[in-house]
Amino acid sequence: MTLKVLSSESAGNCYLIESDSQCLIIEAGIRLQELKLSLNFDLSKVIGCLISHSHGDHCKYARDFLKAGIDIYTSKETIAAANLTGHRLFPLSPLPVQLGQFTIKCFPVPHGVPTLGFLIKHHLAGSVLFVTDAAYIPNKFIDLTHILIEANYEDSILTNDRSVGHHMSLDTCLEFLRANDMRQVRNIVLLHLSSLNSDSKKFAKSVQSIAPNASVSIADKGLEVNLSKYPF
Questions:
Q1: Number of domains in the chain
Q2: What span, in angstroms and rounded, lies between the C-alpha atoms of 199 and 181?
Q3: Which residues face 153 on adjacent strands?
Q4: How far is Cα 153 from Cα 170, in angstroms, rounded to an integer?
């Protein structure tokens, strides 16, 4: 089971969680051609695409994904805001949904527009938490094995206030990690770092101090992370 970062920035976001037989896409913020290239122009493994919210860097190319035959799962508010239509659209509810071998449970997070976080379970990966574009995470979780979480900015190097109130600061990210059980967490991947208001080395070091047994990565384009449940 592998996480592939296709893009994690304000220009566009897209991630793949991929096993030998199935691929789950998260976010539709990059061109379809880029997605196809990353999958060697074979979409047969794709079981669906989760979209967190309606902002363009997460949803801009959703129509193209739909036209390519990719099922999209998101909130009814995002469907309406992005003016999406078609039989491949599936509005999410608080109830878990089964996509192939993946079980998806969504939950709301604060971001100024209706936004979802995702708890993704798979027998090969365990429990994967995905949250980006959120001021904070109101939930606590148990038995997490991998955490994909936004760390957008730090107050001490903030050059503008655009991120404040809508994106997760490093301090808020650290607070969330402290509040949850890190004992089984194998990977923490920091998403959507601001190009102006972050310091990737400092952010990774700070998170590592909270979870010394986890591998900490920055979600740079092209990053691949082993999301297997067990180390061997």
A1: 1
A2: 26
A3: 169
A4: 6
